[in-house]
Fold this sequence. Notes:
It is built from two helices and three strands, in the order αβββα. The longest helix is centred in the last third of the chain and has 14 residues, at 43-56. The chain is 30% helix and 14% strand. By secondary structure, the chain is α+β, with helices and mostly antiparallel strands.
Amino acid sequence: RFLQLTKEMKGKKRIYFSFYDNELKDPYFLEKANLFAETNLSADSITQLIQKALNYFSIQPSRIRIFVQKK
């Protein structure tokens, strides 16, 4: 189901997942999924992607916690 979700998660002008690293600005290889994810995203974009993923997998946002580490 994750691969199906990655096909649906697109911006207006950008894609966030691809099988080809040259289609992304700053790709990161996800070994288990055998595809690349865009890492050059704003905090708002990341938040929206997380919300879409939670919705897609029917996970209530109150059931998760996200911790951010300061640099």
